[in-house]
Automatic annotation (TrEMBL):
Protein name per its UniProtKB record: Peptidase A2 domain-containing protein
Region of interest (Disordered), residue spans: 1-27, 219-275
Protein source organism: Phytophthora nicotianae P1976
InterPro entries: Peptidase_aspartic_dom_sf
Compositional bias annotation for Polar residues: 1-12
Length: 530
């Protein structure tokens, strides 16, 4: 029988009243293919997530939908366990038997070997200082500690009163920064002694101290910003309504033609001339992925203040210029643990290392001890700035050079400076032990120049005619091959255009020695010092 319009409308109304049901993707149980300690920890975590997902979807009928543990056990591995360990038939093994064995393996120490937990925790447990929310930073620190304990099966070591004391001691020892760790240690020792054995009391103490330090840091940061604005003459927010009292700069137009348009942000090169001042990678500060807006503004303010201060600008000119293309060859390895950049041409009498490098080295090698100097050592740097060193360390050095590694078998005494020095300063004492005497080499160079000047007349007639240096096209092809070989050997492709500009900037390359014209430079003048 044909449907009428009224029946069609009633059918459509019924379809509209029908409730749509959500469609879930199938949830598969994790397979048990290995019974190692780490694999079982991961499997138990995934199994709990799987069962919770099934219960939240199926509600009352979850027990019928959850796949048994025995069905997810690898058949060959289960047969071996039944034959060699349990000595049971496969049909007699139940889920509770398997889960009991899994819990037994996870709760036991791996390989029945007690490791150096202090060293392991010091290497793995870290407080995430990039997290700006102090409360979240502290709770994540405790969470990471408990996850490390569970992953290694160390919970048996932290049971009872003595175990809780050991856990609280480890939590305090891995705190960062150093100022927070020192303050918490003093508070636990003299004020909040309950935090020595109670994780909850220790959490509250760390959170309180961390919040206090964050408030002090923000106040100091604002005061520095306000002081910098006053020093550089920038108008504050209260005087924003006043008209600027600045003279208009007069710029003379060029006689050669119209003034070129200003370069926009899109016209600038992709690779900056110097590394990022925040992370030292080759990109612009505005494109830095790790710096926040506040940090970028602070860095720009410091750069503007440095340009405005004449004295700072003169000091900056006396510093050693860094290479545009950073090299990984000039680095030194300390005690075969920590690799840092080094500077060998500073003219320092003693080797110097920064305090933060010493702390990193002590975390990697606990045998490194800081020794106090009997007499403080005063060193003079650029601009008659004095740095006082009161402590030193003895460490083995492995210099990584372009020709290969150079190992110093005897430990070298290094003075410790509190300032943030990015490089390890290699002193003259180390260079002399390697047979490198800069003053002696300069003397030999001066004698050699005199000998060459005296013999120029006699040897001029004996020099053979040199070959033609070659055409520009041949030279360009040879340089292009060198750049291509550098790229093939691992040179970054993003710096290809930069290195080509550097190679071709000056006419210093020759295929063969030829008869080039003499250099057109002014003669040197010697003036006696008063």
């Amino acid at each position: 029988m044909a449907k009428t319009r009224s029946s069609n409308s009633s059918t459509s109304d019924a379809d509209e009243d029908r409730v749509t049901a959500p469609i879930f993707t199938p949830t598969l149980p994790p397979r048990l293919t290995s019974t190692s300690h780490a694999a079982l920890v991961k499997w138990r975590r995934e199994r709990r997530e799987y069962e919770e997902t099934i219960r939240s979807r199926a509600k009352d009928s979850a027990a019928d939908l959850i796949v048994p543990v025995k069905s997810t056990f690898d058949e060959g591995l289960l047969r071996m366990w039944c034959l060699l360990r349990w000595k049971l038939l496969i049909d007699d093994v139940t889920d509770s038997h398997i889960l009991a064995e899994v819990d037994k393996i996870i709760d036991s120490v791996k390989n029945n070997d007690v490791p150096d937990i202090d060293v392991e925790m010091r290497e793995q447990l870290r407080m995430d200082l990039s997290e700006f929310d102090v409360s979240e930073r502290v709770i994540q620190y405790f969470k990471e500690c408990y996850e490390i304990v569970d992953d290694h099966g160390w919970r048996v070591f932290f049971t009872g009163l003595d175990g809780r004391k050991q856990l609280c001691r480890i939590l305090i020892a891995s705190l960062e920064p150093q100022a927070l760790r020192d303050e918490v240690e003093r508070a636990v020792r003299f004020q909040s002694r309950k935090a020595k054995e109670d994780e909850v009391a220790l959490h509250d103490l760390i959170l309180t101290k961390a919040l206090d330090q964050e408030k002090a840091f923000q106040i100091l940061k604002r005061s520095k910003r306000d002081r910098g604005e006053r020093e550089t003459g920038r108008p504050s927010a209260r005087g924003a309504g006043k008209p600027p009292n600045k003279k208009q700069r007069v710029v003379e137009t060029s006689k050669g033609g119209p003034r070129p348009p200003l370069k926009s942000e899109t016209d600038r090169p992709k690779v900056p001339p110097t590394p990022c001042p925040h992370c030292n990678d080759m990109h612009w500060l505005s494109e830095c992925p790790t710096a926040t807006d506040d940090q970028k503004a602070e860095i720009r303010r410091k750069l503007r203040a440095q340009r405005a201060d004449d004295s700072k600008r003169k000091v900056a000119r006396t510093k050693r210029l860094r290479e545009c293309l950073p090299s990984e060859e000039k680095s030194v390895t300390l005690n075969d643990k920590l690799t840092v950049p080094y500077c060998a041409d500073s003219g320092a009498d003693r080797s110097v290392i920064s305090r933060h490098y010493v702390e990193q080295l002590q975390q990697l090698d606990p045998s490194v001890k800081v020794e106090s100097l009997d007499t403080p050592f005063v060193s003079e740097t650029v601009g008659d700035h004095e740095v006082v060193c009161t402590a030193s360390i003895h460490t083995r050095l492995l210099l990584n050079t372009a020709a290969g590694p150079v190992a110093l078998h005897e430990p070298v005494e290094c003075l410790i400076v509190e300032e943030e020095e990015p490089e390890f300063i290699l002193g003259q004492d180390v260079l002399l032990s390697l047979g490198i005497d800069v003053d002696r080499q300069l003397e030999q160079l001066a004698n050699r120049v005199n000998d060459v000047d005296d013999g120029d007349t006699e040897l001029k007639d004996d020099l053979p005619d040199l070959a033609h240096p070659g055409t520009d096209e041949e030279l360009s092809e040879a340089l292009d091959r060198l750049v291509t070989m550098a790229l093939a050997n691992g040179f970054p492709h993003k710096l290809e255009e930069k290195v080509r500009d550097i190679v071709l900037k000056h006419d210093i390359w020759r295929l063969e020695l030829g008869k080039d014209p003499p250099a057109n430079v002014e003669p040197l003048k010697i003036r006696l010092k008063d």
